[in-house]
């Protein structure tokens, strides 16, 4: 056996002792007893195979070498069977995990895991070292009234409020100055913004003061029922206060209070008035003035009054009254039981009275009836009054509306203006009559008839005047 190469031997991994192996050839497979020369130390066998540092003269090769590491290290290149490199790299891990031992209990191999409260050191007070640490335990009882201090303790905020004389700063223009010497914002104390604007209190009110108005300091005062009740807007310098509503496009409506003749719009309101100023979208303005002497409305004008309406401005416009129902009047003027002055007056800008409705309901002033010129067959309308008719080409018929379709007493003055002999025939509608007849004929130039409705159904048009001049 000693002369046979080791490659021709069959290697068995059966040992009789911990440090020896037994070599058998193909024809001799019987294990020898202890002490036979077939048993050799394992180190001698390695030397014969060319591995290790034995003194034997044999030679041999390793056919495969592998590498096994913990699971947090990824092995590449294993096994090596001829030549190569065994490499170990750290395996990827879940976010926010760390390499540590077990979270509790006995010691164990470390793994990657999430932090637990026991992993963090106790929070320590700030100071020269500024040592980091975890938030201290607030105690076994949950609460919502304490805060964490710099010295690593939980504490209840002081009941005295802000430190007096201090400032919460955000730049010079954004500072809040707490001026009062006491610990609370009490009567006569104030919060000052941007130097001069303040929020202050009295025994019964909270006051917001703004000093940048060109006409003087403005105030918004919220009062309780022990004071003046509600919200009060004030101006310290002039007898005028504006409350404005403005949208994102700059369109503004105002509610204005003015006292004294310098800040009133209506005639005779020398003691003051209350105004509603409406800037409609586009270019128009409507204003309602209500004062101790007069109340007036100025409708849509020709020039838009933006933002602030100038003192004394009276924009031109019209009062448009829409009836609430078809059987209800559009405008009602009620006089007192002892009314002696006019119910309504129509004046120019002087103001000179042009016409009036007296306390008795009489219209006093020049009256201009609505004039209409007709030259062919037509039906008179309730809006017409003075009708000039011409039959220059041929005669034709003018039909009256039903007597009950117009106001009782409604009047038509119908006059023929041409010098032809063609006749104009005025005809009553339906079963109506004209002083008992169904028609009235105008033949000569300048012939006329004045008729008034009795409002009946069937009705009668009463002739109250006729002639040729």
The CATH topology of the domain at 371-467 turns out to be Jelly Rolls
pLDDT averaged over residues: 74
Please indicate the percent range of residues in DSSP E strands (runs of 2 or more). 25-35%
Helix content: under 10%
List unreliable stretches of 5+ residues: 1-18, 53-58, 160-183, 301-312
Major sheet characteristics: 7 strands, antiparallel
Model description:
- The protein is 1% helix and 30% strand.
- The protein is mainly beta and 469 residues long.
- Among the domains are: 1-63, no CATH class; 371-467, Sandwich (Jelly Rolls).
- A 7-stranded antiparallel beta sheet has the order 9-10-11-12-13-14-15, with no helix packed on it. Strands 24-26-28-32-33-30 form a 6-stranded mixed beta sheet, with no helix packed on it. The chain has a 5-stranded antiparallel beta sheet with strand order 16-17-18-19-20, with no helix packed on it.
- The longest helix is centred in the first third of the chain and has 7 residues, at 42-48.
- The radius of gyration is 57 Å and the shape is elongated.
- It starts with 19 loop residues before the first strand and ends with a strand.
- The relative contact order is 0.04.
Task: Give a short overview.
This protein has 1 helix and 33 strands.
Provide key terms for this protein.
elongated, 33 strands, six-stranded mixed β-sheet, Jelly Rolls, mainly beta, disordered N terminus, 30% strand, 1% helix, 469 residues
């Amino acid at each position: 056996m000693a002369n046979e190469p080791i490659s021709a031997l069959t290697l068995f991994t059966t040992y009789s002792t911990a440090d020896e192996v037994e070599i058998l050839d193909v024809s001799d497979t019987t294990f020898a007893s202890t002490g036979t020369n077939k048993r050799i130390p394992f180190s001698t066998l390695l030397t014969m195979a060319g591995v290790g540092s034995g003194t034997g003269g044999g030679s041999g090769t390793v056919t495969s070498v592998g590498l096994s590491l913990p699971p947090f290290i990824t092995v590449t290149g294993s096994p090596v069977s001829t030549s190569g490199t065994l490499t170990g790299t750290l395996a990827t891990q879940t976010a926010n995990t760390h390499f540590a031992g077990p979270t509790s209990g006995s010691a164990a191999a470390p793994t990657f895991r999430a932090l637990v409260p026991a992993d963090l050191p106790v929070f320590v007070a700030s100071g020269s070292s500024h040592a980091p640490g975890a938030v201290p335990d607030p105690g076994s009882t949950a609460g919502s009234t304490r805060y964490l201090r710099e010295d690593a303790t939980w504490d209840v905020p002081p009941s005295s409020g802000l430190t007096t004389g201090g400032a919460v700063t955000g730049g010079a223009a954004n500072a809040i100055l707490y001026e009062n010497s006491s610990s609370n914002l009490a009567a006569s104390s104030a919060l000052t913004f941007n130097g001069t604007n303040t929020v202050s209190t009295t025994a019964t009110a909270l006051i917001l003061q703004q000093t940048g108005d060109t006409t003087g300091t403005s105030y918004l005062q919220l009062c309780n029922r022990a004071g003046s009740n509600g919200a009060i807007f004030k101006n310290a310098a002039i007898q005028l206060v504006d409350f404005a509503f403005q949208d994102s496009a700059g369109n503004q409506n105002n509610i204005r209070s003015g006292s004294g003749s310098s800040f009133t719009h209506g005639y005779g309101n020398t003691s003051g008035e209350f105004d509603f100023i409406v800037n409609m979208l586009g270019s128009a303005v409507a204003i309602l003035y209500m004062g101790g002497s007069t109340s007036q409305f100025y409708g849509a004008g020709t020039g838009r009054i933006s933002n602030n309406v100038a003192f004394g401005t009276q924009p031109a416009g019209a009062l448009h009254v829409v009836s609430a129902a078809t059987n209800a009047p559009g405008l009602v003027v009620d006089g007192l039981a002892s009314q002696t002055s006019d119910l309504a007056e129509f004046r120019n800008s002087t103001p000179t009275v042009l016409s009036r409705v007296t306390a008795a309901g009489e219209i006093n002033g020049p009256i201009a009836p609505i004039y209409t010129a007709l030259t062919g067959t037509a039906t008179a309308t309730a809006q017409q009054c003075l009708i000039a008719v011409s039959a220059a080409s041929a005669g034709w018929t003018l039909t009256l509306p039903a007597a009950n379709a117009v106001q009782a007493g409604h009047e038509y003055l119908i006059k023929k203006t041409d010098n032809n002999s063609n006749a104009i025939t005025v005809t009553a509608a339906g079963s109506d009559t004209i002083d008992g007849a169904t028609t009235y004929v105008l033949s000569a130039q300048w012939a006329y008839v004045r008729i008034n409705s009795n409002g009946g159904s069937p009705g009668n048009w009463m002739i109250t005047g006729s002639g040729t001049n």
